[in-house]
From TrEMBL:
Domain of life, per lineage: Archaea
NCBIfam families (UniProt xref): TIGR00269 family protein
Pfam family, one: TtuA_LIM_N
Domain called tRNA(Ile)-lysidine/2-thiocytidine synthase N-terminal: residue spans: 52-222
GO biological process: tRNA wobble position uridine thiolation
Keyword ATP-binding: yes
Name under which the protein is recorded: TIGR00269 family protein
CDD domains: CTU1-like
Length: 303
């Protein structure tokens, strides 16, 4: 016997344990898009004449972000959407995802900028990874990519930088920062304030579980990603992912609870622990706290 959608009589394709709802394709799609619109309205008020840059890796999360932003803002002549793909130089992994990003932007009629670590830093992740046994490749890759994304977004005059972090990523990061006692990173997770030199970040998918993004991407013929990055081994995050997935099975709604609890206290945290003011990095000129930005510090270690 097939299970029916709780909103109509069609066959259900998903059971949301946390909401107790069975949903058909149409109502599942509506549910995902409604939550994303709500997140944008609540956390990121988009004004007239904005340019939204979308960090587009070509995987399911960033492709879904671009697809939905195009659905919401594509008809607005005053809103410009631009994809930015960063090629970190990871053979056997990144070239395929960049190809997907090109296909998707072409299909949607959206401009795509591709920037590479090789052009910008003179080194690829394939060069850097073997040198970095101690800190792990991801610590380098994440910081350098974030810096290049921000720089490119600034160059094209973007007022927002959208990234594809989903509910799982956000809940993991909240817990990870608590476990590390890293209050300043927790504060930085709060909805962003205007800071000169930094493009405002937005995370439209922060209320959507990763599994639902995968299903949405599959149903809408969006890229799903190509296997995993060969350097992915952030041990502590992996443990937290397993722990949270386990909790979610036994206590549905755990990930939502973790994020909404954080949202409730983030304002107080911001007041108690105000972010340091920004200055310009002495080496590259990008906005940062302190004299030298994280990206230049890391690059200094491997030069
Ligand atoms: Fe970069 Fe790590 Fe992501 Fe690979 S898994 S792309 S090394 S951050």
């Amino acid at each position: 016997m097939t299970i029916k959608c709780d909103k109509c009589n069609k066959d259900a394709i998903i059971y949301q344990k946390y909401s107790g709802m069975h949903l058909c394709r149409k109502h599942f799609t509506e549910d995902v898009e409604r939550k994303i619109k709500l997140t944008i309205r609540k956390h990121y008020s988009i004004k007239r004449n904005e340019t939204i840059a979308v960090g587009l890796s070509g995987g399911k999360d960033s492709s879904t972000t671009l697809h939905i932003l195009h659905k919401i803002f594509g008809m607005r002549p005053d809103i410009r959407l631009v994809g930015i793909s960063i090629d970190e130089g990871i053979e056997g992994y990144r070239p395929q995802t960049i190809e997907s990003a090109k296909e998707l932007t072409e299909e949607l009629g959206i401009e795509l900028m591709v920037r590479s670590f090789r052009e910008e830093y003179g080194k690829t992740m394939d060069d850097i990874a073997p040198m970095q046994r101690e800190k792990g490749a991801c610590s380098y890759c994440g910081v350098l990519r974030k810096s290049l994304l921000n720089k490119t977004a600034l160059q094209i005059g973007a007022t927002r930088l959208a990234i594809g972090h989903n509910l799982d990523d956000e809940a993991q990061t909240v817990l990870l920062n608590h476990l590390k006692g890293d209050v300043s990173r927790l504060v930085r997770m709060a909805p962003p304030k205007e800071l000169e030199g930094l493009v405002l970040r937005m995370k439209p998918l922060r209320q959507i579980p990763e599994k639902e993004i995968a299903l949405y991407a599959y149903l809408h013929d969006l890229p799903l990603g190509f296997g995993g990055c060969p350097y992915a081994h952030e041990a502590m995050r992996k443990e937290i992912r397993t722990l949270l997935n386990d909790f979610e099975v036994r206590h549905p709604g755990t990930k939502y609870a973790l994020l909404s609890g954080f949202d409730k206290i983030s304002g107080i945290l911001g007041k108690e622990f105000p972010q340091e003011g920004l200055s310009n990095c002495r080496v590259c000129g990008q906005a940062c706290t302190g004299e030298i930005c994280q990206a230049c510090k890391l690059l200094g270690r491997i030069q």
